[in-house]
Structure formats: structure tokens, C-alpha cells
Write a structure and sequence with these properties.
With about 270 residues, the protein is mainly α. It has 2 domains: about 5-95, no CATH class; about 100-255, no CATH class. The protein contains 12 helices and 2 strands, in the order αααααααααααββα. β1 (about 220) and β2 (about 225-230) form a beta hairpin. The longest helix has 23 residues, at about 140-165.
Length: about 270
């Protein structure tokens, strides 16, 4: 995404308007004005180029040698300035600029916010975390939910290993089911492992329920994996799912014990 440098466009147009008002004036351009143009035009030219306004940038470049001249008059400066103005009008009418609100720009510019610890623990989720936030920022809500679900799926696999689910790759159904069984057991029926980690498991169960509530009738897990069954997501629902996803994966990152390294087979 390119930032729209409107200040450059407004500043250049204001300067051209100043010259246009004096287009028949044969008096010399003031030294202070010329120095100001020398100092600022290269920056505005570069900003035009970044915005894809190549013609405007090229026309503005022609003005630079003129302001180096002694005794330059406003009448001489007017034609190239008028060319810049015409190019700007033509090119900005043909270009398409999308704007973001302050909140949307914040989502786009800071996609990892709140996910830092989770990304450190599970670096594989980085791309999906960033894409989820950026898609949300540009109102691609279904895509934002899709990427947040991918991050959840990775967390489920790691959580499934902790719960000793036989097939953690089966995803949501297997892991959520195994977690529910632990929660539903009476205290005396739980294993030593389940009793030791019950507080953590209970918290995760609450987050699982939060996810279910957030994506009700939007995401299916009937075949083991999380699959979007709707492409219609309001910004409120999409944001709720993103927040619930972040809470789920972040809690896993913070509370899930690190995996024990596999023992190497001893050499005989």
C-alpha cells in the first residue's frame, strides 16, 4: 500500500495558482520564492512518481532548471506550471485511490499488534496473522476470517499434541472433543495429567466456546477441519472472530508447556 501524499499535490497546486495569477507579469520571481521551489520540488517530484503520476513528475522536473535562472519572470514560469497542472488533472482523474479510516490504517500498519508473543512461540502463523489484519483493514472480511482460522488450525495441532490426541491433524473436531471430555469428567475420574493442567484446560475451553459463539453459522467443523461456509461477514462479526482467534492462540503461546525434545536413539 502506498501512502497518498496529498500535501505534495496541494502544495504544488497552490504554487501554480500563485504563478497563474501573475501569468502576464514580466517582473522577476523573488529569490526567496525560487529558493523555496529549489528546496521542495525534488521531494514533490519523487512523491508524484511514487503515486504513479509519472507524467506530472516529468513535467515538474522541467520546472527545476527554470528556477535556477537569473531574472526569471512569472510570465516565463507560467507555461511549464500550467503543463504540470494539466498533467495532474489528467492523471488523478485516471488513477483510483482507496482511502482508509484511522482505525483501518492502524489495522493495516500494525498487523502484529497483540500477536507478538504468539508469533514468537509459533512463527509459522506470521503470514496468516498479517494477512488477516490487512484484509480486515481493506474490508475483505471473509479473507480476514480465513487467515485467522489458519492461525487457529496451527494452534490446534500444537494443542492436540499436548492433549495427546491420537490424530491432531484432524483439527478442530478431534481437539475440541478431547478437551470437552476432560472438562466433563468428574474430578476423581481425571488422570494425573488432567488434574495438573485442569486450570489451563478450563481456560482454553472458555476460549473455544468464545470462538464457537463468534463464528456461529459462519464456519463449519463437521468434517474435522474449520471451513468457511459463508462469504458474508459484517465488520463486527469479522472483528469478533479476529479477537477471539488472537485470544485463543495467544493463550496457547503463553500457557502451553514447550514440547519436550525427542530423545535420540542411543548408538550401540
Amino acid at each position: 500500500m502506498r501512502k497518498l501524499e496529498m500535501s505534495s499535490i496541494f502544495t504544488v497546486l497552490a504554487a501554480i495558482t500563485f504563478v497563474t495569477a501573475r501569468r502576464d507579469d514580466n517582473t522577476s520571481v523573488q529569490a526567496e520564492t525560487k529558493q523555496n521551489w529549489k528546496d521542495t520540488l525534488p521531494t514533490h517530484q519523487a512523491n508524484f512518481a511514487k503515486l504513479g503520476l509519472a507524467g506530472s513528475a516529468a513535467s515538474l522536473k522541467k520546472v527545476l532548471p527554470l528556477v535556477e535562472r537569473d531574472n526569471l519572470t512569472y510570465k516565463e514560469l507560467y507555461p511549464p506550471c500550467e503543463e504540470v497542472r494539466g498533467r495532474l488533472i489528467d492523471e488523478t482523474e485516471s488513477e483510483r485511490f482507496f482511502s482508509l479510516s484511522l482505525a483501518e490504517a492502524d489495522w493495516y500498519s500494525n498487523p502484529r499488534r497483540g500477536w507478538e508473543f504468539a508469533i514468537d512461540r509459533f512463527p509459522q502463523i506470521l503470514d496468516d496473522v498479517e494477512e488477516a489484519a490487512k484484509c480486515f483493514a481493506v474490508s475483505r472480511y471473509a479473507a480476514a476470517v480465513f487467515h485467522s482460522v489458519q492461525a487457529i488450525e496451527f494452534g490446534l495441532i500444537e494443542f492436540g499434541k499436548f492433549l495427546k490426541v491420537n490424530d491432531p491433524h484432524s483439527g478442530w473436531t478431534a481437539v475440541a472433543g478431547a478437551l470437552q471430555k476432560v472438562i466433563d469428567k468428574k474430578h476423581q475420574d481425571r488422570s494425573r495429567f488432567e488434574r495438573k493442567n485442569f486450570a489451563f484446560l478450563e481456560q482454553m475451553q472458555g476460549l473455544v466456546q468464545g470462538l464457537k459463539n463468534a463464528w456461529r453459522n459462519k464456519i463449519s467443523h463437521s468434517h474435522g477441519r474449520l471451513v468457511l461456509i459463508s462469504k458474508e461477514f459484517s465488520p463486527e462479526v469479522a472483528e469478533e472472530i479476529l479477537m477471539a482467534s488472537r485470544a485463543f492462540v495467544r493463550r496457547l503461546a503463553e500457557e502451553l508447556p514447550p514440547a519436550k525434545p525427542k530423545k535420540r536413539a542411543s548408538k550401540k
